[in-house]
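Hey,

The postdoc asked me to send both predictions to you directly instead of through the lab channel. I've kept everything plain text so nothing gets mangled by the mail client. Protein one:
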Amino acid sequence: MSARGTHPANESTAATAQDSNLESRLHLSKDTQPAFNSLELYRGFSDLPKPTDQGSANLPRVDVMDTGSALKRETIILAQAQERGNSKDFQGDRPNQTKPEGEAPARAWEMNLKHNSDRHGHPDALVYLPRGFDPGKPVNLMIYNHGWNTTAGKSYRDAKLGEQIAGAPPNTVLVVPEWQQSPGAESGRQGNLSKPGMYAGMLQEILDKTPGLQGKKLKDIENIGIISHSAGYNPTEKMLADGTLGPKVKSLTLLDSAYNPAGMEGWLRTNATALARGEKRFTNIYHGTSGESQRQLKTIKQILGERSLPQEGLLVDQGNANRPLQPEQMANKSIVFKRSDVTDGKQGPHGSMPGLYVKTIASSLR
């Protein structure tokens, strides 16, 4: 296992349905099925790939959606017997749990997009709208960039991102891009997404295609957060350097992802004053990237010193590596460096970080 990836996984496609209806010929992949057992899903059928597009009609899809004029929508609540087996994964998003009258349920989609890394046979992004999402109110975007040896759907399931993001500020929409040219590989290649403007185009296309977000423009969304795990620093650097996205990023979190500190330095320098004032936030939780993180910490201190900016918002916690970062530690702290040797009992410190810390980060933004 590479230090820059999570745990290896074999992607599997579900068996072909024995039905002539178009709806029944979509295929549910084993790596994503448990993640959607308790969510309301929508399937769109107006822009399905042809067999000649990607070599086979037997593709690992949960949903492929498009919002063209031919869109058909179908609400699916998966079997509650299945759901009960995974209820802990989506605590608070279970269909059988009482919800305030009129409150929108949590919803998730996997999409095919024109702004993609390549024609790789996987969905190009996963989008999650939280319970109670109100399209009439301002929207916050949280982007999760996964590491090696996983995919957008698998990383969403493994880290229980839907459950963890529930603690974020209201109307926080989670986007998990499939940034790898070859999803699940040990590779930082981003394919088409390495071109200028492609990530901004991807996010705008997601807004255009997601029910509840349609009609919204990226230029109107002021609050973007990025959580990068491991090799997710590759797309994160591209997003920060994007003239449309970079200035909108108000929260940047590296989960053992500081493999190239120089790639973040431009954003840190540009936003040093906002970080010192608590108007933006930077968090680096590290284990395998200890050396790189120490260099990054030195750079930040140097920047603050050169500009005579206050450092009261800086927290450095290296002596409690066996204790997870606590939400109360982040109160009034806008620059956080935390060494973490904690594990979830199944993986090492590196692979454990998404499952341990996304909730803490999300809730700290309230």
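Protein two:
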Amino acid sequence: MVILSPHLDDAVFSCGGLLAARPGATVVTVFAGLPADDVPLTDWDARCGFESARQAMTARREEDARALAALGATPHWLDFLDAQYSRSPSPHELGEALLDTLRTLDDAPVILPMGLFHSDHLLVHEAALWALRRVLVDWPVLLYEDVPYRRLEGLLQQRLQTLAGLGLVATPSDMAIPVADPLKAQAVSEYVSQVRGLGEQGKADLGRPERLWSLAGACGGGDA
């Protein structure tokens, strides 16, 4: 099982129960690159208690490694920079990188974010569809609802409509996921800096049931 995670926490926040139930997964985090020393401190990093962008990403990698170890999962970090630090890659550029990564891992199913909010989430969603529709024709594909953005009204419905417009059908998955798993709670607790910045509503969403959607038609060729 491969889970695509925009940032160093998204897979655990959104799929930690699934990871706990199915140890041995690989989590590919796309925007895990380390900024240069002179990259300015962002508001988010300051809220999370850091003094520099590089310090923030170094600490987040350490948090991610501990969290995934608790779930029996393997981290695979790509070197793209978070949008708050640098120009974002194009969907094609990122899609090519994901294509190379997924060919190397050669595991199924592939689980990607709905891309409900935040430019990095949407970019990973679009680039992953671009990649999957070209090579992995026999792999099952699922989508996870991005925590904490799934709580924003109307975003899920908009994404389902967009997928339908691309000829892709998303239906609720029947994959069993524990409602409250102590291993997920342990893993979430490792992301000390990120939980600090979430706010009360975001923290509450971490405890709500995880939801996956099966995607049909994602691997039939053509542009996503």
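Summary for protein two, as requested: The first strand starts at residue 2 and ends at 5.

Thanks,
C.
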